[in-house]
User: Which sequence fits this backbone?
């Protein structure tokens, strides 16, 4: 079998579009001037940005039909531009073949390709440095971390004025800063996303295992590993910091466990979700959230079966069922699944926000812990304010949480036995 020559191997290795994932390739829809690449740590964002700049500088389809003569490279600091975007393992100097590779002039902060294309390096620490130069393309790295973010972004936009179609790519781990949110809301911005795990074949297995075990599902993990934009409302009863402060790896022996059920108002497939939250309390009166088993689009017998299954798995003491919606139907359908399950019916006499306030106070006092991470539930908690959720949807997970902790911690109870889970 004939083997490849060193030059042939180098060409094959540099053929990025053969190896790239779909999220690392430029899309044609919608027609865009900005490509926003969101990803977790190590997801391959730098390689995506560097390959895009290479394609623009060399005039390689599908990036460009002709070379782009002037390109801006903008990073958080000059050191970041040099160490990551230019000289890094996935940086511009590493991804070219020997005969195409640009020359880096550190003192002038510029790359020059053999074909005459030039890329200039800029720091977000100095927005005024972008006043004057003009470009046909730009690569902005870790935009969400930039100092002087809006000012630097504005100066860059004024400089993108060369050629028929100036374009730019942004590679960043998302943070809920106003500019990122505006870009995501713009229908003319192309967006691609990737989690750290998407690039696991190029990362150490121990790294993936360690960070997933430590940060998986947490606010930091969702942002830094999953590449999610994790937000909270300014007037929400809970904050991300409050929830992170109450997180534990596991619960201790618990005195009492309940499964709270917030049934949907309708049996329609388009109805709200059925909130299902498992919580317990220890002998010192500290509450523990154990699982969010909320189910969407389920018929009554389906969510009832899920509630009973959670009751059995956690060896719970009771099902706490809100009966405002559906009245006796909610309890009767559970008894059809398992007539031996103890059901405690509860009825709301106040609005959702007023019911949630005392439970939020328990969190503020450090009296509730989360035994693990519950991303969807925690999203509702950090979005729920006086007007409800910003989406306008019913806070089904949050309602179930409030019923569970109210039953365990805010209603008079006898002293139950201590148990393990």
Assistant:
């Amino acid at each position: 079998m004939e083997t490849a020559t060193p030059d042939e191997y180098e060409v094959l290795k540099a053929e990025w579009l053969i190896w790239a994932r779909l999220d690392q390739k430029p899309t044609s829809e919608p027609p865009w001037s900005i490509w926003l690449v969101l990803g977790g740590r190590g997801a391959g964002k730098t390689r995506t940005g560097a390959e895009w700049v290479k394609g623009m500088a060399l005039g390689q389809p599908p990036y460009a039909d002709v070379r782009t003569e002037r390109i801006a490279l903008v990073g958080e600091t000059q050191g970041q531009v040099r160490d990551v975007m230019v000289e890094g393992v996935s940086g511009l100097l590493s991804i070219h073949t020997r005969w195409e590779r640009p020359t880096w002039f550190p003192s002038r902060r510029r790359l020059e390709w053999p074909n005459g294309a030039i890329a200039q390096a800029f720091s977000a620490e100095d927005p005024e440095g972008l006043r004057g130069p003009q470009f046909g393309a730009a690569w902005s790295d870790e935009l969400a971390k930039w100092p002087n973010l809006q000012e630097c972004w504005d100066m860059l936009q004024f400089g993108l004025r060369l050629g028929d179609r100036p374009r730019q790519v942004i590679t960043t781990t998302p943070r809920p800063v106003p500019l990122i949110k505006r870009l995501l809301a713009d229908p003319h911005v192309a967006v691609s996303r990737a989690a750290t795990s998407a690039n696991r074949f190029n990362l150490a297995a121990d790294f993936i295992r360690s960070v997933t075990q430590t940060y998986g599902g947490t606010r930091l993990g969702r942002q830094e590993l999953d590449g999610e934009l994790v937000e909270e409302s300014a007037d929400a009863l809970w904050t991300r910091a409050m929830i992170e402060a109450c997180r534990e790896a596991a619960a201790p022996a618990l005195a009492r466990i309940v499964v709270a059920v917030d049934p949907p108002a309708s049996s329609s497939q388009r109805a709200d979700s059925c909130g299902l939250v498992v919580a317990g309390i220890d002998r010192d009166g500290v509450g523990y959230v154990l699982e969010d088993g909320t189910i969407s689009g389920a018929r009554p017998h389906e969510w009832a079966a899920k509630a009973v299954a959670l009751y059995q798995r956690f060896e719970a003491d009771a099902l706490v069922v809100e009966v405002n919606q559906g009245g006796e139907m909610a309890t009767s359908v559970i008894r059809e699944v398992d007539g031996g399950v103890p059901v405690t019916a509860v009825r709301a006499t106040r609005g959702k926000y007023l019911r949630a306030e005392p439970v939020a106070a328990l969190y503020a006092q450090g009296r509730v812990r989360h035994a693990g991470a519950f991303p969807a539930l925690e999203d509702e908690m950090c979005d729920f304010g006086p007007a409800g959720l910003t989406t306008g949807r019913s806070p089904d997970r949050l309602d179930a949480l409030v019923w569970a902790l109210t039953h365990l911690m805010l209603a008079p109870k006898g002293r139950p036995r201590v148990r393990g889970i």
Summary: The longest helix spans residues 45-58.
